[in-house]
Amino acid sequence: MLTTDDVVAVEETGGALPPLKWDQCLFEQVVMGHRFAEEWDARYPAQGQTTADTPPGYITLYSNFFGDGNFRLLATHFLGDILQYYGFHIPKLSPMCMVSVWHFEFVCQSQGEEPTVDKFRAFYQL
């Protein structure tokens, strides 16, 4: 949700989006709130790091996946099937794309249907 400060920042930058207000405390809230296992070794990026600086063996997850996308670790087999079919890694999916995948999966389950990539592709394009 944009605040008045965000709107002013956008106007001052000529329409460019302001940087996200993300800090170690918010990171720790996500880690604790979503019960990340200690063995996952979740790390907050160092000052100036970007997703391109992700260490080998690690992935980058955006906080929006957990809020807007309702993403939860461990992910379902269906999400794994979608990622494998399209050749994506989780950071390549936008939060709204995650919402589409979750919505489709929940609707299938509510109708007693198993979600599959072929069924998903009949309704959505990524």
Give an overview in words:
The chain is mainly alpha-helical. It is elongated, with a radius of gyration of 17 Å. The chain has helices spanning 4-12, 24-33, 63-67, 77-86, 95-110, 117-123. The two termini are 25 Å apart. The chain has six helices and no strands. This is Transposase (putative) gypsy type domain-containing protein. Residues 70-126 form the Transposase (putative) gypsy type domain.
Question: Top keywords for this entry?
Answer:
126 residues; mainly alpha; 2 domains; 6 helices; 45% helix
| Number of DSSP helical runs | 6
Overall body shape: elongated
The SS-based structural class is mainly alpha
The pLDDT mean sits at 78
Supply the number of structural domains.
2
Order of helices and strands: HHHHHH
By DSSP, the count of extended strands is 0
Helix content: 40-55%
The low-pLDDT segments are 1-10
Radius of gyration: 17 Å
Proportion of strand residues: under 5%
Distance between the termini: 25 Å
Q: What composes the largest sheet?
A: none
Helices and strands, with pairings:
Elements: H1 4-12, H2 24-33, H3 63-67, H4 77-86, H5 95-110, H6 117-123
Summarize the structure.
With 126 residues, the protein is an all-alpha fold. It has helices at residues 4-12, 24-33, 63-67, 77-86, 95-110, 117-123.
